[in-house]
Amino acid sequence: MPFLDPDKPLATCVAENCDDCSVRERLHCHFTGRDLTRFMISVSPAFVVGGAGIVHTGAWWLVPWLAIALGYFGLLEIRVMCSHCPHYAEPGRFLQCWANHGSPKLWRYRPGPMSGVEKAVFWAGLLAVAGYPLVFLLMGMQWLLLALFVLSLAAAGTVMRTQMCSQCICFACPLNGVQGEVRQRFFERNPRVAEAWGIEVERL
Question: What letter does residue 92 receive in the DSSP assignment?
Answer without folding.
Answer: S
